[in-house]
Amino acid sequence: MPVFRFRRIVCRCEVFSLDNYGFIRQKIDIKVLILYILKRLPAPVSQNMLTELTLIDNATNYFDYIECLTELEQKDLIIMTEGDKYTITPKGIRTATEMESGLPYTIRIKAASGAERAAKILAREAMIRTSHKEKPEGGFTVSLSLSDGLGEMLHLDILAGTDKQAKEMEQRFRKHAESLYLRIAGILTEDPEDGIKEE
Q: pTM value?
C-alpha cells in the first residue's frame, strides 16, 4: 500500500492597509480635494481645521497634503489671510469647478459633509468678536460683541485687571456668547418686582 507524504508549505503574506496609504495618491487629486473643501467654506479656515477636513478617513498622506498646500499657495490658488488662515482665490475656485468631478465620489461626499459642518462653525465664529487693549491708567478694556449677521445684538466693554483675565473673558464669551446674551436680555426685560412677595 503506497504511503503518501504531504509537505506542509507555509506561505507568509504581508498585508498592507489601504488606510495607511490613503485613497488618493496623486498630488493633483490632493490639491483638487483641498480646493474642493475651501470652495465650500464661507470664511478663511485655520490649518488645523483644513487638515482635519482633508485627511478624512486617512484619505491621503499627511506629508503629501502639506506639500500640496504649499504648492497651491505658490500658484496663487489659495492664500493665507490675517491670523494664519487659508482661503481660496478666484483662480482656485475656477480650478476646483473644472476638476472636482474627477475626485472619487465617496471622497467628495465625505468632504462636502465635513465642509458643511465646518461652515456652521465658521459662521458662528464670524458673528462673535472679542478684543482687549491696555488702559493708560492700568487694567484692560475687554470688548465683546455678538451679531446675528444683520447687525450687533450685544456689545460690552468690561474692565479686566490683568492681560490673563482679559484673555479668559474673551475665551469664555466665545464659548457662551448666545447664552450670555439671553441671560442679560432676560435680566433687562423682566419686571424687577417679579418674585417679590408682599408682606
A: 0.65
Q: Pick 52 or 197 by higher pLDDT.
A: 52
Average pLDDT of span 63-72: 94
pLDDT at site 195: 54
3-state SS string over the chain? CCCCCCCCCCCCCCCCCHHHCCCCCCHHHHHHHHHHHHHCCCCCEEHHHHHHHHCHHHCCCHHHHHHHHHHHHHCCCEEEECCCEEEECHHHHHHHHHHHHHCCHHHHHHHHHHHHHHHHHHHHHHCEEEEEEECCCCCEEEEEEEECCCCEEEEEEEEECCHHHHHHHHHHHHHHHHHHHHHHHHHHHCCCCCCCCCC
Cα dihedral 102, 107, 112, 115, rounded to 10, equals -120
- The full set of domain ranges for the chain reads 18-126, 128-189
C-alpha cell at 74: 505658490
In this structure, is the dihedral angle defined by the CA atoms of residues 35, 38, 39 and 40, taken in order, positive or negative? positive
Average pLDDT over the chain, rounded to whole? 84
| CATH class assigned to 18-126 | mainly alpha
Tens-place pLDDT, residues 91-148: 999 999 999 999 988 899 999 999 999 998 888 888 889 999 999 999 999 999 998 8
Question: What type of residue sits at position 85?
Answer: K
Tell me the C-alpha distance between 145 and 174, whole Å. Answer: 9
